[in-house]
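An instance as discussed:

___
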Amino acid sequence: MLRSYLNAWLAILGTRNERVLFIDGFSGPGEYEGGEDGSPIVALRALHEHTYRDKINAEIIFAFIDSDQRRIDHLETKLAAYRDAHPKVKVETECGVCAEVVNRVLDHVTKDGGQLAPAFVMLDPFGVSYTPMSLIARLLKNDKCEIYISFMWESINRFRGEEEFATPLDELFGTDEWRQGMDLQSADRKAFFYELYEAQLRKAGAGQVTYFELFNENRHIYTIFFATKHRLGMDRMKSAIWTADPTGQFQFRGRAIDRTQTSLEIATEVDFEPLCLQIQEEFGGEKNVLSEDVVAWAQTDATDFHSGHVKRALTKMESDGRIVVDKATRKQPNRRSFANGTAFEVKPLDD
Protein backbone atom coordinates (compact mmCIF):
# COMPACT_ATOMS: atom_id res chain seq x y z
CA MET A 1 0.00 0.00 0.00
CA LEU A 2 2.86 2.38 0.85
CA ARG A 3 4.53 1.62 -2.47
CA SER A 4 1.28 2.23 -4.35
CA TYR A 5 0.78 5.60 -2.68
CA LEU A 6 4.38 6.71 -3.23
CA ASN A 7 4.09 5.87 -6.91
CA ALA A 8 1.35 8.51 -7.18
CA TRP A 9 3.01 10.94 -4.76
CA LEU A 10 6.35 10.91 -6.57
CA ALA A 11 4.72 11.29 -9.98
CA ILE A 12 2.84 14.40 -8.86
CA LEU A 13 5.20 16.16 -6.46
CA GLY A 14 8.47 14.93 -7.96
CA THR A 15 7.72 16.63 -11.26
CA ARG A 16 6.28 19.89 -9.90
CA ASN A 17 8.68 20.87 -7.11
CA GLU A 18 12.36 21.56 -6.71
CA ARG A 19 12.63 19.36 -3.62
CA VAL A 20 10.52 16.73 -1.85
CA LEU A 21 11.08 14.88 1.40
CA PHE A 22 10.31 11.38 2.61
CA ILE A 23 10.79 11.25 6.38
CA ASP A 24 10.58 7.94 8.21
CA GLY A 25 10.63 8.78 11.90
CA PHE A 26 10.90 5.19 13.15
CA SER A 27 12.76 3.52 10.31
CA GLY A 28 13.96 0.36 12.01
CA PRO A 29 16.76 -1.69 10.42
CA GLY A 30 15.28 -1.78 6.92
CA GLU A 31 14.15 -5.39 6.96
CA TYR A 32 12.15 -7.79 9.10
CA GLU A 33 13.40 -11.01 10.62
CA GLY A 34 11.96 -12.97 7.72
CA GLY A 35 13.87 -10.85 5.22
CA GLU A 36 10.89 -8.74 4.07
CA ASP A 37 11.67 -5.13 3.15
CA GLY A 38 11.06 -2.51 5.81
CA SER A 39 9.56 0.89 4.99
CA PRO A 40 12.91 2.55 4.03
CA ILE A 41 13.56 -0.01 1.33
CA VAL A 42 9.93 0.01 0.18
CA ALA A 43 10.17 3.80 -0.27
CA LEU A 44 13.48 3.68 -2.12
CA ARG A 45 12.33 0.87 -4.38
CA ALA A 46 9.19 2.87 -5.21
CA LEU A 47 11.45 5.52 -6.72
CA HIS A 48 13.93 3.06 -8.24
CA GLU A 49 11.16 1.14 -10.04
CA HIS A 50 8.95 4.14 -10.83
CA THR A 51 7.44 4.25 -14.33
CA TYR A 52 8.26 7.95 -14.66
CA ARG A 53 11.57 7.77 -12.80
CA ASP A 54 13.50 9.62 -15.50
CA LYS A 55 10.92 12.44 -15.55
CA ILE A 56 11.24 13.17 -11.84
CA ASN A 57 13.31 16.34 -11.67
CA ALA A 58 13.00 17.24 -7.98
CA GLU A 59 15.76 16.72 -5.47
CA ILE A 60 14.44 13.86 -3.36
CA ILE A 61 15.65 13.54 0.20
CA PHE A 62 15.00 10.30 2.08
CA ALA A 63 15.57 10.83 5.80
CA PHE A 64 15.54 7.77 8.04
CA ILE A 65 15.50 8.26 11.81
CA ASP A 66 15.72 5.68 14.56
CA SER A 67 16.66 5.87 18.24
CA ASP A 68 18.61 2.58 18.16
CA GLN A 69 22.10 2.83 16.70
CA ARG A 70 22.13 -0.90 15.94
CA ARG A 71 19.12 -0.49 13.70
CA ILE A 72 20.70 2.46 11.95
CA ASP A 73 23.91 0.49 11.43
CA HIS A 74 22.00 -2.39 9.86
CA LEU A 75 19.93 -0.02 7.75
CA GLU A 76 23.12 1.53 6.37
CA THR A 77 24.10 -1.86 4.96
CA LYS A 78 20.77 -2.02 3.12
CA LEU A 79 20.98 1.50 1.71
CA ALA A 80 24.23 1.19 -0.23
CA ALA A 81 22.54 -0.08 -3.39
CA TYR A 82 20.20 2.95 -3.49
CA ARG A 83 22.41 5.91 -2.67
CA ASP A 84 23.47 6.46 -6.29
CA ALA A 85 20.29 5.14 -7.91
CA HIS A 86 19.13 8.59 -9.05
CA PRO A 87 21.24 11.71 -9.68
CA LYS A 88 19.09 13.92 -7.45
CA VAL A 89 18.51 11.49 -4.58
CA LYS A 90 19.97 12.05 -1.13
CA VAL A 91 19.69 9.32 1.48
CA GLU A 92 20.33 10.34 5.08
CA THR A 93 20.16 8.50 8.39
CA GLU A 94 20.23 9.81 11.93
CA CYS A 95 20.19 8.10 15.29
CA GLY A 96 17.91 10.03 17.60
CA VAL A 97 14.42 10.49 18.99
CA CYS A 98 12.07 11.29 16.12
CA ALA A 99 10.33 14.28 17.72
CA GLU A 100 13.64 15.85 18.72
CA VAL A 101 15.20 15.39 15.29
CA VAL A 102 12.17 16.63 13.34
CA ASN A 103 11.62 19.60 15.66
CA ARG A 104 15.26 20.57 15.16
CA VAL A 105 14.78 20.45 11.39
CA LEU A 106 11.60 22.52 11.63
CA ASP A 107 13.37 25.06 13.85
CA HIS A 108 16.02 25.49 11.15
CA VAL A 109 13.54 25.68 8.26
CA THR A 110 11.13 28.13 9.88
CA LYS A 111 13.54 30.46 11.67
CA ASP A 112 13.34 32.95 8.79
CA GLY A 113 9.71 32.25 7.94
CA GLY A 114 10.45 29.36 5.59
CA GLN A 115 8.27 26.38 4.75
CA LEU A 116 9.19 22.73 4.74
CA ALA A 117 9.45 21.28 1.24
CA PRO A 118 6.57 18.95 0.26
CA ALA A 119 6.91 16.01 2.62
CA PHE A 120 5.50 12.60 3.32
CA VAL A 121 6.15 11.81 6.99
CA MET A 122 5.81 8.31 8.43
CA LEU A 123 5.34 8.08 12.18
CA ASP A 124 5.33 4.40 13.10
CA PRO A 125 6.34 4.08 16.76
CA PHE A 126 6.62 1.03 18.97
CA GLY A 127 4.00 2.10 21.50
CA VAL A 128 2.28 5.36 22.42
CA SER A 129 5.24 7.65 23.05
CA TYR A 130 7.30 9.89 20.76
CA THR A 131 4.56 11.07 18.36
CA PRO A 132 3.10 14.07 20.22
CA MET A 133 0.28 16.02 18.65
CA SER A 134 2.40 19.14 19.04
CA LEU A 135 4.88 17.70 16.51
CA ILE A 136 2.08 16.83 14.08
CA ALA A 137 0.67 20.36 14.40
CA ARG A 138 4.08 21.84 13.55
CA LEU A 139 4.35 19.60 10.51
CA LEU A 140 0.85 20.45 9.32
CA LYS A 141 1.62 24.16 9.36
CA ASN A 142 3.51 23.39 6.16
CA ASP A 143 1.11 23.43 3.24
CA LYS A 144 2.30 20.29 1.46
CA CYS A 145 3.01 17.97 4.35
CA GLU A 146 1.20 14.64 4.63
CA ILE A 147 1.42 12.38 7.66
CA TYR A 148 0.98 8.63 7.87
CA ILE A 149 0.64 7.63 11.53
CA SER A 150 0.44 4.27 13.24
CA PHE A 151 -2.15 4.64 15.97
CA MET A 152 -1.26 1.98 18.50
CA TRP A 153 -4.78 1.21 19.68
CA GLU A 154 -3.92 -2.09 21.36
CA SER A 155 -1.25 -0.44 23.53
CA ILE A 156 -3.49 2.54 24.30
CA ASN A 157 -6.34 0.27 25.32
CA ARG A 158 -4.19 -2.08 27.38
CA PHE A 159 -2.31 0.54 29.37
CA ARG A 160 -4.80 3.41 29.50
CA GLY A 161 -5.21 3.09 33.27
CA GLU A 162 -1.51 2.94 34.12
CA GLU A 163 -0.29 6.14 35.73
CA GLU A 164 2.99 6.22 33.80
CA PHE A 165 1.04 6.27 30.52
CA ALA A 166 -0.99 9.35 31.41
CA THR A 167 1.59 11.89 30.24
CA PRO A 168 2.43 10.05 26.99
CA LEU A 169 -1.30 9.85 26.20
CA ASP A 170 -1.76 13.54 26.98
CA GLU A 171 1.02 14.26 24.47
CA LEU A 172 -0.26 11.78 21.90
CA PHE A 173 -3.74 13.33 21.81
CA GLY A 174 -2.64 16.87 22.61
CA THR A 175 -5.32 16.95 25.31
CA ASP A 176 -6.39 15.11 28.45
CA GLU A 177 -9.88 14.51 27.05
CA TRP A 178 -9.01 10.84 26.39
CA ARG A 179 -9.68 10.25 30.09
CA GLN A 180 -13.39 10.73 29.41
CA GLY A 181 -13.41 7.48 27.44
CA MET A 182 -11.56 5.29 29.92
CA ASP A 183 -14.60 3.69 31.52
CA LEU A 184 -16.73 3.24 28.43
CA GLN A 185 -17.60 -0.23 27.17
CA SER A 186 -15.05 -1.74 24.77
CA ALA A 187 -16.61 -0.79 21.40
CA ASP A 188 -17.70 2.64 22.65
CA ARG A 189 -14.28 3.25 24.15
CA LYS A 190 -12.56 2.44 20.87
CA ALA A 191 -14.90 4.71 18.91
CA PHE A 192 -14.34 7.50 21.42
CA PHE A 193 -10.53 7.30 21.19
CA TYR A 194 -10.57 7.11 17.39
CA GLU A 195 -12.96 10.04 17.06
CA LEU A 196 -10.94 12.11 19.52
CA TYR A 197 -7.69 11.44 17.67
CA GLU A 198 -9.29 12.34 14.34
CA ALA A 199 -10.71 15.53 15.82
CA GLN A 200 -7.31 16.48 17.22
CA LEU A 201 -5.64 15.92 13.85
CA ARG A 202 -8.17 18.28 12.28
CA LYS A 203 -7.58 20.79 15.05
CA ALA A 204 -3.84 20.48 14.37
CA GLY A 205 -4.39 21.59 10.78
CA ALA A 206 -5.38 18.56 8.73
CA GLY A 207 -8.08 19.39 6.21
CA GLN A 208 -8.59 15.75 5.31
CA VAL A 209 -8.31 12.77 7.67
CA THR A 210 -8.98 9.10 7.21
CA TYR A 211 -7.97 5.91 8.93
CA PHE A 212 -8.02 2.24 8.15
CA GLU A 213 -7.51 -0.87 10.18
CA LEU A 214 -5.74 -4.02 9.08
CA PHE A 215 -7.09 -7.33 10.33
CA ASN A 216 -5.77 -10.85 9.89
CA GLU A 217 -8.95 -12.89 9.96
CA ASN A 218 -10.58 -11.21 12.98
CA ARG A 219 -7.42 -10.16 14.80
CA HIS A 220 -6.61 -6.44 14.77
CA ILE A 221 -3.07 -5.86 13.51
CA TYR A 222 -2.78 -2.08 13.38
CA THR A 223 -4.53 1.17 12.62
CA ILE A 224 -3.15 3.84 10.31
CA PHE A 225 -4.33 7.45 10.31
CA PHE A 226 -3.57 9.61 7.29
CA ALA A 227 -3.69 13.39 7.46
CA THR A 228 -3.33 15.90 4.63
CA LYS A 229 -4.54 19.33 3.64
CA HIS A 230 -5.50 18.34 0.12
CA ARG A 231 -8.30 16.23 -1.30
CA LEU A 232 -6.07 14.89 -4.10
CA GLY A 233 -3.67 13.46 -1.52
CA MET A 234 -6.62 11.90 0.28
CA ASP A 235 -7.92 10.43 -2.97
CA ARG A 236 -4.52 8.92 -3.81
CA MET A 237 -4.25 7.35 -0.36
CA LYS A 238 -7.71 5.80 -0.59
CA SER A 239 -6.82 4.44 -4.02
CA ALA A 240 -3.63 2.93 -2.59
CA ILE A 241 -5.60 1.24 0.18
CA TRP A 242 -8.01 -0.27 -2.31
CA THR A 243 -5.26 -1.58 -4.59
CA ALA A 244 -3.23 -3.18 -1.79
CA ASP A 245 -2.84 -6.92 -2.05
CA PRO A 246 -2.91 -8.43 1.46
CA THR A 247 -2.45 -12.03 0.20
CA GLY A 248 -6.15 -12.79 0.51
CA GLN A 249 -6.18 -13.20 4.31
CA PHE A 250 -6.46 -9.60 5.43
CA GLN A 251 -9.18 -6.99 5.59
CA PHE A 252 -8.88 -3.23 5.37
CA ARG A 253 -11.67 -1.46 7.19
CA GLY A 254 -12.20 2.23 6.67
CA ARG A 255 -13.40 5.03 8.91
CA ALA A 256 -17.03 5.25 7.73
CA ILE A 257 -19.55 5.26 10.55
CA ASP A 258 -21.58 2.37 9.16
CA ARG A 259 -18.91 -0.32 9.01
CA THR A 260 -21.35 -2.98 7.82
CA GLN A 261 -21.81 -1.08 4.57
CA THR A 262 -18.53 0.67 3.82
CA SER A 263 -15.73 -1.49 5.19
CA LEU A 264 -12.90 -1.81 2.73
CA GLU A 265 -12.91 -5.55 2.36
CA ILE A 266 -10.35 -6.48 -0.25
CA ALA A 267 -12.06 -8.79 -2.70
CA THR A 268 -12.02 -9.64 -6.38
CA GLU A 269 -15.22 -7.66 -6.92
CA VAL A 270 -16.02 -4.24 -5.49
CA ASP A 271 -19.50 -3.79 -4.04
CA PHE A 272 -20.55 -0.34 -5.24
CA GLU A 273 -23.89 -0.30 -3.43
CA PRO A 274 -22.54 1.47 -0.32
CA LEU A 275 -21.13 4.23 -2.53
CA CYS A 276 -24.44 4.51 -4.40
CA LEU A 277 -26.25 5.00 -1.09
CA GLN A 278 -23.75 7.63 0.01
CA ILE A 279 -24.17 9.51 -3.27
CA GLN A 280 -27.95 9.49 -2.74
CA GLU A 281 -27.51 10.70 0.81
CA GLU A 282 -25.19 13.53 -0.28
CA PHE A 283 -26.89 14.64 -3.50
CA GLY A 284 -30.41 13.21 -3.26
CA GLY A 285 -33.12 15.63 -4.41
CA GLU A 286 -30.77 17.76 -6.52
CA LYS A 287 -31.77 18.09 -10.17
CA ASN A 288 -28.61 19.35 -11.86
CA VAL A 289 -25.71 17.41 -10.37
CA LEU A 290 -22.58 17.28 -12.54
CA SER A 291 -20.46 14.15 -12.69
CA GLU A 292 -17.34 16.15 -11.79
CA ASP A 293 -19.08 17.37 -8.63
CA VAL A 294 -19.50 13.78 -7.47
CA VAL A 295 -15.89 12.99 -8.37
CA ALA A 296 -14.66 15.99 -6.36
CA TRP A 297 -16.77 14.90 -3.39
CA ALA A 298 -15.43 11.33 -3.61
CA GLN A 299 -11.85 12.60 -3.49
CA THR A 300 -12.39 13.86 0.04
CA ASP A 301 -12.60 12.02 3.34
CA ALA A 302 -16.42 12.01 3.10
CA THR A 303 -16.30 8.41 1.87
CA ASP A 304 -13.94 5.44 2.02
CA PHE A 305 -14.27 5.06 -1.76
CA HIS A 306 -12.04 6.96 -4.18
CA SER A 307 -12.81 8.97 -7.31
CA GLY A 308 -12.04 6.06 -9.61
CA HIS A 309 -15.11 4.27 -8.27
CA VAL A 310 -17.57 7.04 -9.10
CA LYS A 311 -18.46 6.38 -12.73
CA ARG A 312 -19.13 2.70 -12.10
CA ALA A 313 -21.38 3.63 -9.18
CA LEU A 314 -23.24 6.17 -11.33
CA THR A 315 -23.69 3.56 -14.06
CA LYS A 316 -25.28 1.24 -11.52
CA MET A 317 -27.50 4.02 -10.22
CA GLU A 318 -28.71 4.88 -13.72
CA SER A 319 -29.54 1.23 -14.37
CA ASP A 320 -31.47 1.13 -11.09
CA GLY A 321 -33.38 4.34 -11.87
CA ARG A 322 -31.80 6.22 -8.97
CA ILE A 323 -30.42 8.94 -11.24
CA VAL A 324 -31.99 10.43 -14.37
CA VAL A 325 -29.45 11.79 -16.84
CA ASP A 326 -30.06 14.91 -18.90
CA LYS A 327 -29.23 13.32 -22.26
CA ALA A 328 -28.53 16.70 -23.84
CA THR A 329 -25.44 16.95 -21.63
CA ARG A 330 -24.13 13.48 -22.44
CA LYS A 331 -21.27 13.59 -24.94
CA GLN A 332 -22.00 10.04 -26.09
CA PRO A 333 -25.84 9.90 -26.13
CA ASN A 334 -26.01 6.19 -26.92
CA ARG A 335 -23.73 5.15 -24.07
CA ARG A 336 -23.90 5.37 -20.30
CA SER A 337 -20.86 7.57 -20.03
CA PHE A 338 -20.24 10.20 -17.37
CA ALA A 339 -17.72 12.60 -18.84
CA ASN A 340 -17.32 16.03 -17.25
CA GLY A 341 -20.39 18.13 -17.90
CA THR A 342 -22.84 15.25 -17.71
CA ALA A 343 -25.79 16.41 -15.59
CA PHE A 344 -28.38 14.32 -13.79
CA GLU A 345 -31.05 14.30 -11.12
CA VAL A 346 -30.36 12.18 -8.05
CA LYS A 347 -33.38 10.55 -6.47
CA PRO A 348 -33.63 10.90 -2.65
CA LEU A 349 -33.01 7.83 -0.55
CA ASP A 350 -36.67 7.48 0.39
CA ASP A 351 -37.89 7.28 -3.24
